Amino acid sequence: MPSYNYDEFSPDDYDFDTVEGPVVGQKAPDFELTTSDGRTKRLLDFEGDFLVLEIGSITCPLFQSRRGIMQPLQQEFPKVSSAVLYVREAHPGVDIPGHQNFDDKLACATRLKSEDGETRTVFVDDFEGAAHLGYGSMPNAVFIIDRKGCVRFQAEWNNPSATRKALAALIAGKPVCVKSYFRPALPPIALKTLGRAGRGSAGDFFRGLPFLIWTNLIKRNLRLLFNQQQGARKSPGC
């Protein structure tokens, strides 16, 4: 079993066939976490009617590709809070390596704010990834959680268009009838993200790319198309 904070990406670090986090209708796990600006705050202590929680890291091309679309949600929907859960580095390299301690993770989360201009609240997970594991451990999952702490929408891979449609439906009191198909990262952003991480990041990514295409772009999207559900972990309902 590899360490949670791996030094080299491998598809074996993720289970792409099983839903391990909370699904719609289940209680979202709450955690007391440090924010990127040094505050201590509970993850589910938010203002508004809903929280849009996106999983990410500075070396995740998917997360970086979605940030420009996800950040304005809180302005577009005034009764909504939006936050990032900063987790392990998805594609570490020599310049942005895997975290060796919590301070490394906090430093990367701070860079996300200061260098990349992230405007959302950034929660920093603990070193061993307790919150990330609690939410399924995928590198760019998204959850919409209501004031009662109930998951109202979730996707193992964030599709911002589907997330926005789901949020609009929930605010309007309508059922959510969207499918969150997997969309690959924008190539220019992916190359920039991997290059920034440094030597080793791109090589590890491209070695795993055929497997990632098969399991996510093809197999997962076909499951959604034909309404086939992935296996989900049992947990108490809301």
From TrEMBL:
Gene Ontology molecular functions: thyroxine 5'-deiodinase activity
Transmembrane portions of the chain: none
Domain of life: Bacteria
GO biological process: thyroid hormone metabolic process
One Pfam short name: T4_deiodinase
Domain Thioredoxin, chain residue ranges per copy: 22-172
PROSITE patterns, alphabetized: THIOREDOXIN_2
Name of the featured protein: Redoxin domain-containing protein
Protein source organism: Parasedimentitalea maritima
